[in-house]
UniProtKB/TrEMBL annotation:
Involved in the lysine biosynthetic pathways. It catalyzes the transfer of an amino group from L-glutamate to N-succinyl-2-l-amino-6-oxoheptanedioate (N-succinyl-2-l-amino-6-ketopimelate) in a PLP-dependent reaction, yielding as products N-succinyl-l-2,6-diaminoheptanedioate (N-succinyl-diaminopimelate) and 2-oxoglutarate. Keywords: Amino-acid biosynthesis, Aminotransferase, Cytoplasm, Pyridoxal phosphate, Transferase. Its main location: cytoplasm. This is Probable N-succinyldiaminopimelate aminotransferase DapC. GO terms for biological process: amino acid biosynthetic process. It comes from Wenjunlia tyrosinilytica. InterPro entries: Aminotransferase_I/II_large, Kynurenine-oxoglutarate_AT, PyrdxlP-dep_Trfase, PyrdxlP-dep_Trfase_major, PyrdxlP-dep_Trfase_small. One of its GO terms (cellular component) is cytoplasm. Its cofactor is pyridoxal 5'-phosphate. Pathway: Amino-acid biosynthesis; L-lysine biosynthesis via DAP pathway; LL-2,6-diaminopimelate from (S)-tetrahydrodipicolinate (succinylase route): step 2/3. Pfam families: Aminotran_1_2. It is found in: Cytoplasm. Signal peptide: none annotated. Homodimer.
């Protein structure tokens, strides 16, 4: 066989960096600030809701294809409560196996061979693989350091649109940079999408982790309701990343298109957890604000620790990640730096370069997650001082 075993569309997408770095964390007994999962489970009441659903036989067999009505209704009520958006739970919500499946199904549904997909670089790693699986071509628009944040150059975005552009894949709050697109930026993107008749798929899994101001869904802007698919997830908001409950919302046509792909991926998933997430979404505002305040304090703790250790820190406005520049420490290759960091000081981080097509633009940046217990972050900060 002279043909490679792996489908050539997936060439270059070997094991993810998270597998390598998490294995390194275990081997060296390091604190793992690489992968973004909380080290504390979400609310006890939500966990109990899942246990109740399991015991009462709700969701133990295949749930309905679009998701259980309780969760679809809860998603619609959530969008109304936080953003004033009207969503029909019967036709405009689809429950997915986490945001990961929502991204895959949306791209498989909407992208054909030859279509271009614009994505903000650095991007969450599944975007590139899913665009490739859909046969599309990714067109990265690079976020660049701008003071103590990463900024989007709107002219660069406009210049990236061609006659072949099918959609813009957005992510705000943005992983790994922590950038939150401003209302002015979102308005400009919306105007561009309307003018060039583009679809927008927007990954808003960190919608409740915005530290200054609030989250603005692009779907709420003029002309966007009819062309936007919004992706959400319970994993980040309720700290149950293993449950894999996500959703997409959009027009009935768009949601039906995504469902056409989704039904042949998992068909359905997470039965009992869907009921529990429905209850979670209805938690009072204080749950959401205390989650955000707690993570804001952790952001500040880790940001000052990293600054004290000599990193240049880009202050995240959202998400639970901090991107740093390692050049002030005398390094420029983030991958090499991350591979040696566990041996040097017992902390694991991930090199942002793996989220870039333009390796040179991402090389000196390294990401740390702060969704960890305060004493774990304290210990990580004291270990990083060894640098
Ligand atoms: C930007 C972004 N989108 C999607 C996901 C995946 O979400 P889920 O666990 O719900 O599949 C993540 C997880 O880290 C993420 O950071």
């Amino acid at each position: 066989m002279d043909r490679p075993l792996l489908n050539r569309r997936l060439a270059g997408f070997g094991t993810t960096i998270f597998a390598e770095m998490s294995a390194l964390a275990v081997r060296t007994g390091s604190i793992n600030l690489g992968q973004g999962f909380p080290d504390t489970d979400g609310p006890e009441a939500v966990r109990e809701a899942a246990v109740r659903a399991l015991r009462e036989g709700r969701g133990n067999q295949y749930p309905p294809g679009p998701g259980v009505p309780e969760l679809r209704t809860a998603v619609a009520e959530h969008h109304k409560r936080w953003y004033g958006l009207g969503v029909d739970p019967d036709t405009e919500v689809l429950v997915t196996a986490g945001a990961t499946e929502a991204i895959a199904a949306a791209l498989l549904a909407l992208v054909e061979a030859g279509d271009e997909v614009i994505a903000l670089e650095p991007y969450y790693d599944s975007y590139a693989a899913c665009i490739a699986m859909a046969g599309g071509t990714r067109v990265p628009v690079t976020l660049r350091p701008d003071g103590d944040v990463f900024g989007l150059d709107l002219d660069e975005l406009r210049a990236a649109v061609t006659d072949r552009t099918r959609l813009i894949l957005l992510n705000t709050p943005h992983n790994p940079t922590g950038t939150v697109l401003t209302p002015a930026e979102l308005t400009a993107i919306a105007e561009l999408a309307v003018e060039r008749d583009l679809l927008v798929v927007t990954d808003e899994v960190y919608e409740h982790l915005v530290f200054e101001g609030g989250h603005l869904p692009i779907a709420s802007l003029p002309g966007m309701g009819e062309r936007t698919l919004t992706i959400g997830s319970a994993g980040k908001t309720f700290s149950f990343t293993g449950w894999k409950v996500g959703w997409v919302t959009g027009t009935p046509d768009m949601v039906t298109a995504v469902r056409s792909a989704k039904q042949f991926l998992t068909y359905v998933s997470s039965g009992p957890f869907q009921y529990a997430v429905a209850e979670a979404l209805a938690l009072p505002d204080e749950y959401y604000t205390s989650l955000r305040d707690d993570l804001r304090a952790k952001r500040d703790l880790l940001a000052s620790g990293l600054t004290a250790a000599g990193f240049e820190v880009f202050r995240p406005q959202g998400t639970y990640f901090i991107t740093t520049d390692i050049r002030p420490l005398g390094h420029k290759d983030g991958l090499e730096f991350c591979r040696s960091l566990p041996e040097r000081c017992g902390v694991v981080a991930v090199p942002n370069v793996v989220f870039y097509d333009h390796a040179e633009a991402g090389s000196p940046f390294v990401r740390f997650a702060f969704c960890k217990k305060t004493d774990v972050l304290d210990e990580a900060v004291s270990r990083l001082k060894r640098l």
